[in-house]
């Protein structure tokens, strides 16, 4: 039997989540466990899926990163499935751990996925740290721009200037029509 697992990190990723569900259905999954939770949070539906699968079943995911964010966790899930006699299938990477080539690809792609995740986190940390070092806002340093002449009531009332992030579109303004 094919058991599917779909995960989205946030509610905002609805389109990707629905695409996962459709792909799992198209792959012939008899039952699908799904949840919208971060990969670092407790994932009750993943645990339910891992408990549900039986010898001879296949746990199907669209991509390995839906299953785990680190190689060690991915390997632990793989070992747990192997112990139960369950194959892991990744649809987008064409991985099937019931074959020796599939097990090799599983480990290689897991390592690459962790590497990509770590690079993304490094860039994210740098992006957060840079404005702190320069003393600017996340959107860039603020600049003064004249009020828009047709604005009924700018947020900065009583001022002849409005503060917008630098790089804003010329003539853009924040106002509340009153």
Write structural notes for this entry.
The protein is α/β, with parallel strands linked by helices.
Write a short abstract of this structure.
The chain has 178 residues and is an alpha/beta fold.
Mean pLDDT, all residues: 77
* Fraction of residues in β-strands: 15-25%
Give the termini distance in whole angstroms.
62 Å
The total strand number stands at 7
Number of helices: 4
Please state the overall shape, judged from the principal axes of the Cα atoms: globular
- Give the helix level as a range of percent: 25-40%
What is Rg? Answer: 24 Å
The biggest sheet amounts to: 5 strands, mixed
- Neighbour order of strands in the largest sheet: 2-1-3-4-5
Quote the CATH topology of the largest domain. Rossmann fold
Could you state the oligomeric state of the chains shown? single chain
Weakly predicted, low-confidence segments = 150-178
Domain module tally: 2
Helix and strand composition category: alpha/beta
CATH class of the largest domain: Alpha Beta
The assigned CATH architecture of the largest domain is: 3-Layer(aba) Sandwich
Give the name of the CATH superfamily of the largest domain: Resolvase, N-terminal catalytic domain
Order of helices and strands: EHEHEHEEHEE
